[in-house]
Amino acid sequence: MRILITNDDGISAEGLTILEAIAHEVAGPDGEVWTVAPAFEQSGVAHCISYTRPTMLSQLSERRFAAEGSPADCVLAGLHVVMHGQRPDLVLSGVNRGNNSAENALYSGTLGGAMEAALQGIPAMALSQYYGPANRETGNPFEAAAVHGAALIKKILAAQPQDAQDYRLFYNINFPPVPAAEVKGTRVAPQGWRPGCHFSAEEQLSPTGRRYLWIRGGNQHVEATPGSDAAVNLDGYISVTPMRADLTAGDALDALKAVEWTGK
């Protein structure tokens, strides 16, 4: 198996090292793992691409590259430049430092990389490690992902349905904020909602009187929609959420179609 990996925390991130090990286990002894990751941290860039400026690409070692762009840029670079037209069988993005459950999924560069792969017709998964008191200060806060990641990916690959839709499936995987031995299992769960857990902006003044804004996140441990990804994560389970890039609100289509619109 040939696997392309990326992330949004940057080429030097600890989570990328964890993902490289996971990818090698999934690819097998005769497989290939290619890495194209951002040269600098790109957290929160979602699915953006560097459409209006060039992206510098540097080779660091065999099958390992850094791009001065977003995770989606890195996937594009991997597919169309680095791998010389040899399409990967799978794209993995992560392991993110922090969860991408619930509303975080909309901002996540980790998911942006997986989404771009899906738009290119390639199976893709985004992996993220929830942080909390039980794992944040341990020797390896990524332990749950490191121990359970490869087996979980193999199970998803074996179970994924044939997908002929225009917007292909990709998977959002979040590991709970506990050590590996305390993971209770895996739950297939929808994207959830954490009430009040939204981003905000805070103004500060520099010593010279200039105004600056800092973006702040919300409490990641508030009660979430029961049975959703964030809820099962906080209960000690790995969440697997199948996603598509189609943003149509299907539940609102019929109501809008029933409106008597003026004009043609």
From TrEMBL:
Domain Survival protein SurE-like phosphatase/nucleotidase: start-end pairs: 3-194
Cofactor-binding details, from the entry: Binds 1 divalent metal cation per subunit.
Swiss-Prot/TrEMBL keywords: Cytoplasm, Hydrolase, Metal-binding, Nucleotide-binding
Binding site for a divalent metal cation: 8-9, 43, 96
Catalytic activity: a ribonucleoside 5'-phosphate + H2O = a ribonucleoside + phosphate
Enzyme class label: hydrolase
Cofactor(s) needed: a divalent metal cation
Single GO MF descriptor: 3'-nucleotidase activity
UniProt key word Hydrolase: yes
Pfam families named among the record's database cross-references: SurE
InterPro entries: SurE, SurE-like_Pase/nucleotidase, SurE-like_sf
Family from the record: Belongs to the SurE nucleotidase family.
Function: Nucleotidase that shows phosphatase activity on nucleoside 5'-monophosphates.
Protein name: 5'-nucleotidase SurE
Gene (UniProt): surE
